[in-house]
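# nightly structure sweep
# worker-07 picked up a monomer target from the shared queue
# config: single-sequence mode, recycle default, output format = structure tokens
# input follows
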Amino acid sequence: MASVLVSDVIVDGWSVFLYYTQWTFLLVTLYFGLGSVLSFYGCYQYACKMDKSVGDHGSYIIAPTGESTYDDSIKSSCFNKTHDGREIAGFWGYLFQIMFQTNAGAVMLTDMVFWFILYPFLARNQYQMNFLLIGTHSLNALFIIGDTALNSLRFPWFRISYFMLWTGLFVSVQWIIHANVSIWWPYPFLDLTYPRAPVW
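# output follows
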């Protein structure tokens, strides 16, 4: 995914980040990057745990009452406590879940609007379909749908607010950029100079 994003920037320049699609694609790329790092870390923790359990089969001396053979500093910083026998996620776990919940809404919005509204009615005559255009409007949905099918992350409906905050951030950045620099609007409905501009 990162290679598609880098290729898009090389071919079309930094102006691609004026589009919500690229913001979403960047966030999905960061999400899978963070997921890979956390997965490597989890595998490392599991391997260390297995090594300790293998090493514990030697001689065993019972610790005096009230003392522990393990120091509290050994505990992982990724997990704080347990709840119903499961470890509660730490900062990185919550960040990962927030990124998933933001991506789930943003990816569905961008891909459904592009493939069901923009492309059939507006974009077919304006754009030549190429690998980058198809990739940026398809790969993110395929990866998120696949990830949703394979992971066990929950999506409580109140957390759709993360998606709304992400979209609001995009709109705010667009308005700030266009208030200071005279450039074209990637989405004309955001232009506040039109008489029928939306009242936000």
